[in-house]
């Protein structure tokens, strides 16, 4: 197993502020990055902004500013959102960064030299909001199948990428790497389209100027998707920084929304194969959020911004909800009713309550000091807690965040049931102090393990649990931290405020 890990998000268009749908991919990537760092892996987590193209040029013109001014303003907003969501990206790539533009030109030049780029004419449809070429047969009621807006007609001299030449190679790559694209349903969908045949794709534009100039023909700029996809390797310093590239590229995991799988799962791997590079290790396509059952749309008023949720309900609450509520890969609905329901049941009733009642008993029966373990107490819980990391690993291997959280909550709920079954207050009454201490030790140690299990999703709450357990400075790698028995008897606990106050529905 390699000890490097590389996770990316799509780079976001700079024509609008980020809503919860856009923040979703980055939150998921942040959880994976934090998790892999905690496992001791050398981790690189990349996000960024997609700044070129006709859509951005038009948006800037409508606002009477230059595209770069628009990009600078929106990017400042993106960075603010990432900061208050406590996103731990290691780099932020902008497609207007000189380092990126140089990589795009080097990549394009390589393909020209290989004979995979040729001049032609594109006469056909183009969706500006999606920046994609469309065929008549793609249209739904005359509109773009993704954004449902009317496409424009182009008739331009363009350069084409000989994608058809990579049809067999990409098909073989899919067949030899069954987990290359997940979920499997998406993989099958893409693979069957590949089997139907790949056409060459236009990769330059010549009727406007906001883009990376094409090497060798300054009348053309590079098509914005060809430009944008290269961000995943320009941030690794390709082609100059071989060491960084060789460390991280073989481990690359791209998280993308289901709307952009054709670009990521077909065009991008073909581009890489043409350049003599290997495709990424995995591409995972997640579903789309609606709000109260409606498509997220600023103009229709169905939009929720992360800051509004976080300010009212708390950061960890938001992070937990987004990853727990719907299986990664499926579509799902955001509603304040569902959010407050999860906060009150999973967070307040299950986890918060477990911590406060356990600490209250340690305070009352053992004067705020962690009691000695006892062999006979809670063998089943000990086993569950000891197996928790392996259970989470198995789920996160397939990016099943929701199921991984479910495994953690199984332990939390079992702990609450253990209290009901063991009735520590009766043990106290009977004077069975050794068993009483043993029961409480099992609960405290389970809580410590739970705190590490939730750390990538809810870092502040995880630390607060450990602070209340009296071990705020515990550090290390997960394989050690989640091993049973680290909590030392005699440690002074620090009871604090309730971890997750209940909220009004
Ligand atoms: N710029 C391109 C990506 C280029 S990557 C080389 C782009 N940008 S975007 O800003 O339109 O979208 C960024 C991501 O946000 C996409 O993965 C998209 O699927 C995701 N989402 C946008 N709205 C969403 C929801 N309502 N729900 C979930 N994800 C959503 O595409």
Which keywords apply here?
single chain, seven-stranded parallel beta sheet, alpha/beta, four-stranded antiparallel beta sheet, Rossmann fold, 2 domains, 505 residues, 20 helices, Isoleucyl-tRNA Synthetase, Domain 1, binds 5'-O-[(L-methionyl)-sulphamoyl]adenosine
Task: Report what the structure shows.
It is a single chain. The chain has 505 residues and is of the alpha/beta class. The chain has two domains: 4-287, HUPs (Rossmann fold, 3-Layer(aba) Sandwich), CATH 3.40.50.620; 335-481, Isoleucyl-tRNA Synthetase, Domain 1. Helices cover 49% and strands 15% of the residues. It has 20 helices and 17 strands. It has helices at residues 20-38, 54-63, 67-84, 98-113, 167-176, 184-195, 224-229, 231-234, 242-248, 261-274, 306-313, 315-325, 336-366, 379-386, 388-396, 401-422, 424-430, 433-454, 459-469, 478-481; strands spanning 4-8, 12-13, 42-50, 91-94, 117-127, 132-134, 152-161, 181-182, 201-202, 204-205, 213-214, 217-222, 252-257, 282-286, 289-291, 294-295, 332-334. Strands 1, 2, 3, 4, 8, 13 and 14 form a seven-stranded parallel sheet that branches. A four-stranded antiparallel sheet has the order 6-5-7-9, covered by helices on one side. The longest helix is centred in the last third of the chain and has 31 residues, at 336-366. It binds 5'-O-[(L-methionyl)-sulphamoyl]adenosine (MSP). 5'-O-[(L-methionyl)-sulphamoyl]adenosine binds at residues 10-13, 21-22, 24-25, 50, 228-229, 231, 256-257, 259-260, 288-289, 296.
């Amino acid at each position: 197993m390699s000890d490097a890990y590389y996770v990316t998000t799509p780079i976001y268009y700079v024509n609008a502020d980020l809503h919860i749908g856009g923040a979703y991919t980055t939150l998921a990537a942040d959880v994976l990055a934090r998790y892999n760092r905690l496992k001791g892996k050398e981790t690189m987590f990349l996000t960024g902004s997609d700044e070129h193209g006709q859509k951005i040029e038009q948006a800037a013109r409508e606002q009477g500013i230059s595209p770069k001014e628009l990009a600078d303003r929106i990017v400042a907003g993106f960075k603010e959102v990432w900061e208050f969501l406590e996103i731990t990206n290691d780099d932020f790539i902008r497609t207007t960064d000189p380092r990126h533009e140089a990589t795009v030109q080097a990549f394009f030049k390589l393909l020209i030299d290989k004979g995979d780029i040729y001049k032609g004419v594109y006469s056909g449809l183009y969706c500006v909001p999606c920046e994609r070429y469309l065929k008549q047969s793609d249209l739904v009621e005359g509109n773009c199948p993704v954004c449902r807006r009317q496409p424009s007609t182009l008739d331009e001299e363009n350069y084409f990428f000989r994608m058809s030449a990579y049809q067999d190679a990409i098909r073989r790559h899919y067949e030899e790497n069954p987990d290359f694209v997940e979920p499997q349903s998406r993989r099958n969908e893409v693979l069957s389209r590949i089997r139907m045949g790949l056409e060459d794709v236009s990769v330059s534009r010549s009727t406007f100027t906001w883009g990376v100039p094409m090497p060798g023909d300054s009348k053309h700029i590079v098509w914005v998707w060809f430009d944008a996809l290269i961000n995943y390797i320009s941030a690794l310093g390709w082609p100059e920084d071989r060491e960084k590239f060789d460390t991280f590229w073989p481990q690359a995991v791209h998280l993308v929304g289901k709307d952009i799988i054709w670009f990521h799962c077909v065009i991008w791997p073909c581009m890489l194969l043409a350049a003599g590079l290997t495709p990424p290790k995995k591409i995972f396509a997640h579903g789309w959020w609606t709000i109260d059952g409606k498509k997220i749309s600023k103009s229709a008023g169905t939009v929720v911004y992360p800051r509004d949720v976080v300010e009212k309900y708390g950061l960890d609450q938001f992070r937990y909800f987004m990853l727990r509520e719907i299986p990664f890969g499926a579509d799902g609905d955001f509603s304040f009713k569902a959010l407050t329901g999860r906060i009150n049941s999973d967070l307040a009733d299950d986890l918060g309550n477990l911590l406060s009642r356990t600490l209250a008993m340690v305070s009352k029966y053992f004067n705020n000091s962690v009691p000695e373990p006892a062999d006979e107490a809670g063998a089943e819980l000990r086993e569950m807690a000891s197996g928790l990391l392996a259970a989470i690993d198995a789920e996160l291997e397939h990016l099943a965040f929701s199921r991984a959280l479910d495994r953690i909550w199984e332990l939390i709920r079992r702990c609450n049931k253990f209290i009901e079954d063991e009735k520590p207050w009766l043990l106290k009454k009977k004077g069975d102090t050794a068993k009483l201490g043993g029961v409480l030790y099992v609960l405290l140690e389970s809580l410590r393990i739970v705190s590490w299990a939730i750390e990538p999703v809810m870092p502040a709450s995880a630390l607060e649990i450990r602070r209340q357990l009296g071990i705020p400075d515990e550090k290390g790698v997960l394989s050690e931290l989640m091993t049973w028995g680290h909590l030392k008897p005699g440690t002074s606990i620090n009871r604090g405020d309730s971890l997750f106050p209940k909220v009004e529905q």
